[in-house]
TrEMBL record:
InterPro entries: PPR_At4g14850-like_plant (IPR046960), PPR_rpt (IPR002885), TPR-like_helical_dom_sf (IPR011990)
Tree of life domain: Eukaryota
Protein name per its UniProtKB record: Pentatricopeptide repeat-containing protein
GO MF term set: RNA binding
Transferase as UniProt keyword: no
Length: 236
């Protein structure tokens, strides 16, 4: 912060926004708070862009109360504001609050959810086992014509799989043209936690056969499946 204050040219709004983004990325709360304190002294430094940067910084530093306070103080919110706050709540295991905030977003005017926001909401539904709400989000994506990319597809598979709707998860999974390791992990994880050990191993073998490189999450899912179904030798 001292170096920031000693630069020859007086920092402008863009400088503060960049510094806040950097603070969030490295998780440096002290710097982020220091920048926020300096901004409070100059009303001209407050805008939607700087407000979003503050929310993002506090979320990444896991200071959700501060993030929510800034969010509530924003007179105008855009998709970035809503996405930062909703995704932050999901990441910090506060999925109920994330869904409540999404509901509040729907009742507000001017901002419609995009794929990033809906992916976070689907993750919240998966964490809570809220399949009915998750199904509504799925139907909303289809009816709204939102572009169906790998991230959204994976989130839908993850939601149905974790909620125990394996057949639906498989149907969605098979319809995704461009899969990645996270898509496979979503299906494997659902199979594992619901006791489908043999299916999980078959899925894993198919994944490797097709050239996808497993990661730590993949192996944990397969080992979990083996443990739940007594497949000790396979787990070894």
């Amino acid at each position: 912060l001292d170096r920031f204050l000693k630069i020859d040219v007086e920092p402008n709004l863009a400088t503060y926004v960049c510094a806040l983004v950097a603070s969030g990325r490295v998780g440096c709360l002290s710097l982020g708070k220091g920048l926020h304190g300096l901004m409070l002294k100059k009303a001209t430094l407050f805008s939607l862009e700087s407000g979003n940067a503050l929310i993002d910084m506090y979320v990444k530093c896991e200071q959700l109360c501060d993030a929510r306070r800034i969010f509530n103080e924003l007179q105008k919110k855009d998709k970035v504001s809503w996405n930062s706050m909703i995704s932050g709540l999901v990441q910090c295991k506060r999925s109920n609050e994330a869904i409540e905030l999404f509901y509040l977003m729907q009742t507000s005017k001017g901002v419609k959810p995009d794929g990033h926001i809906l992916t976070s909401v689907l993750s919240a539904c998966a964490n809570l086992g809220a399949v009915d709400y998750g199904r509504w989000v799925h139907e909303y994506i289809v009816s709204s014509g939102i572009e169906w990319d790998t991230h959204i597809g994976t989130a839908i598979v993850d939601m149905y799989a974790k909620c125990g709707y394996i057949e639906t998860a498989l149907e969605i999974f098979n319809g995704i043209r461009s899969k990645n390791v996270y898509t496979w992990n979503a299906l494997l994880g659902g199979l594992a936690i619901h006791g489908h050990g043999h299916e999980s191993l078959s899925c894993f073998e198919e994944m490797v056969k097709l050239g996808y490189k497993p990661n730590e999450v993949t192996f944990l899912a397969v080992l979990n499946a083996c443990c739940h179904t007594g497949l000790v030798d396979e787990g070894r």
